[in-house]
User: What shape does this take?
Amino acid sequence: MDIGMSGHQENYYRKVIRTDSDQISLDADMIRLLIAIDESKSLYQIADEVEMKAVTLKKNLSKLLEQGLIEPVKKDLPVLDKIFLQALKINLSMVIGPMAEILIEEVVSEMELTSPEIPVHQAAELITILSHEILDEGKRIEFKKSMMDILNKKRT
Assistant: This one.
C-alpha cells in the first residue's frame, strides 16, 4: 500500500486490537504515531499533530501496518459531479481550444486522481493547475473566477 503524502492526505487509519500472541516491537516515534491515530483524523491531521517529517511518518506508518496494529479506513469523500467536469471542459476549451480535454486528463493523472471520482476538496487545486496553461493573464483570471463560482455554487 502506498502511504506517501502526495494525493493520499485523505487517508484514514484506525487502531486494531490484536488477539494473537506475536511479539510487537515499537520505538518512541511509532508509539507517538499510534497514540495519535484516530479514524476521524486524516493522515495530514495526524502528521501535523505528531510533528513528524513525511519520510519518518511514512516509515512508522508502514511499520504499524506491517505489525497489524493499524488498518486503513475507507471514507466516502464527496466527488465532483459530471456537470462540474463538463463545465470545466467547456470553459477550458473556450480559452485554449480542443487540447483542453487532453490537458485535463494529464493533470488529473499527475494529481494521482481518477477522472470520474475527483474529490471536491481537490477541485481548487485542479483549477489552479489548469489555469497555468492559459497564457493570457486576463483569460486565466476569468477562467479561475468562473470555475470557482461554479464550484462554490455546488458546495452550497
The CA atoms of residues 138 and 144 lie 10 Å apart. Confidence is low (pLDDT under 50) at residues 1-8. The chain has seven helices and two strands.
